[in-house]
Amino acid sequence: MMPEIKEKLYRFIELSNKPDIASVIFAGGVLLASCSIAVENDPGVYADRLVDSPTTDISMPTEQITTNLMPSTSRITVAETTTTVSNLPDTQILSDTTTTTIDPWGEREYQPNNCDQGNVLRVHIQSQTGLAISAQVSVDYMIGDQKVDPNGNPIPSGVSYSDHYKINRDAPPQGYSEGLRDVCFENIPDGASVYVEAYSLAKTGDTNPNTAYVATEEYYGHSMSHQIWPGPGQVVYLNQPAACSIGGDSGSITAHVYNDGQDLNPFRIAAWSNGRNGRTGFSYGFGVEDVYYNGTTTEDTLATLASGEEYVLQVQSYDENGTQYLNIIKDVPVDSCSQTDVEIDNSQDKCVANIGGIALDCTLNDKLIG
Q: What whole-number distance in Å separates Cα of residue 172 and Cα of residue 193?
C-alpha cells in the first residue's frame, strides 16, 4: 500500500466555489501565502483579491503542493505532515511526524547594500513624524502591462509582488529614531517601471507565530508610488501617514452601500490616491480592508489615509441573496482628521454616489482595479 499522507494546514482555509479545490491562506502578514489542495466535495467561498496580491486558486495534484509566499509577516508553520507506513505488520507500524517552518523575516529582512548593482531604486520610508517604523516595502516590476519577476520572467498579475523586503522587526508601535529608513532594490529588469507599496506593520503579542505581525493602521497608514523608472541615484520618498491620536493629520473613508434603498454588506474596500498637485514631500496614500483577511463580517471603512488627497474608491458588497456589487467611485476627498462618508446606491444597473449631496463619478463594474 502507498503511505498515507495526512496534511494539517494551519491558520484557516477558505474553500473555493469549485468542487474539490481549496485555497489555503496563511495569514498574519500584510498579504497572504496561498496554495491549493484537493478537498472532497466541500463547497465554500472564494477568498478574494488583496491589493493586487490576491489569494489565487492554483489547481494541482496533492503531491505537487507548492507554497507561494506572498508578502507575509511572521514565522509561518506551513504544514505538519504525518507519514504512516501501513503495509507492515501491526507490531511494526512506523510513524514519523515533522513540522516545516518558514520565517519570511529571515530571507526577506532587508540587509543594507551599496545600491549600485544594475538598475536600482532606493525607497526611503519613515513615519510622517520622521521615525523609523516596522514596515514591508513591496514592488511590482512592470514591462508594459506585464508583471515580471526580478529576473524579468513573466508572472501572473494576481499571484504576488515581484519583490519585497521588511525592515525594523523590533520597532516599537510608534517607531524609533535608530531604525532603518532605506530599502534598495537592485538589478531591476531592463525596461521595467516600478510600482511601490509600503505597509506599516505591528506586533500583535500573539504567541501563534502565524499572527505575530499584521498590517496595521493604528498609528500609521500605508503609502505608495507608482510607475517609477529606476536608475542611478533614483529615490522614492514615502511617509506613512500618522493617526490623529499621535499628532498626525490622516483621515478616513466610510462607504454606505445600497441597492434600491436596501442596505448592502461591504466585504472589501480599497482606495488609491490620485496624489496632490506638486506632491514633493508627500506620499500617495492607499488602504485596503477585507473580511477574509480580517476575519470580520463587514468592512466599510478605511482609516489612517493620507489627507489632502483625492482617492479612487473601490467597494465590493453583496445583498441578502448573495448577489455581489462592485463599485468604483472617483475623486473621493480625504481631509485632515475627518471622516468622509460616501453614499453609494445601485439601482437599475447603474451606480449613483454622493458626499453630502454632492454627486461623484460612480460606475458599477465587473472587473477589479486591484
A: 33
Q: Are 148 and 142 in contact (CB under 8 A)?
A: yes
How far is residue 238's CA from residue 224's CA, in Å, rounded to a whole number?
A: 7
Mean pLDDT by runs of 10 across the 370 residues of the chain is 30 28 30 30 27 33 31 34 42 46 64 93 94 95 94 85 91 93 96 94 74 84 91 92 95 95 94 67 81 92 94 94 93 96 91 94 85
**How far is the C-alpha of 325 from the C-alpha of 134, rounded, in Å?**
35
The DSSP-derived string for 124-155 is: EEEETTS-B--EEEEEEEEETTEEE-TTS-B-
In order of start, what are the domains of the chain with their CATH numbers? Answer: 4-103 (no CATH), 249-370 (2.60.40)
| HSE of 87, CA atoms in CB hemisphere, 13 A | 4
Q: Which three cell numbers stand for residue 101?
A: 517552518
In the chain, the amino acid numbered 27 is: A
The burial class, CB within 10 Å (0-12 / 13-18 / 19+), for 280 is exposed
Helices marked H in 72-138: 104-108
Q: What are phi and psi of 36, to 5 degrees?
A: -130, 145
Among candidate residues 149, 142, 289, the one with its CA nearest the CA of residue 222: 289
Contact indicator for 50, 17 with CB cutoff of 8 Å: no
**pLDDT score at 241:** 94
Residue 107: predicted pLDDT: 66
User: CA–CA separation, 317 vs 328, rounded Å?
Assistant: 12
- Tell me how far apart the alpha carbons of residues 26 and 32 are, in angstroms, rounded to a whole number: 6
The H-or-E segment that residue 267 falls in is: strand 265-273
CA 158, CA 174: separation in Å to the nearest integer?
Answer: 32
* Closest to 199 measured CA to CA, from 92, 283, 98, 90: 283
Nearest of 41, 23, 20, 43 to residue 33 by alpha carbon: 23
Q: Which residue has the cell 484557516?
A: 12
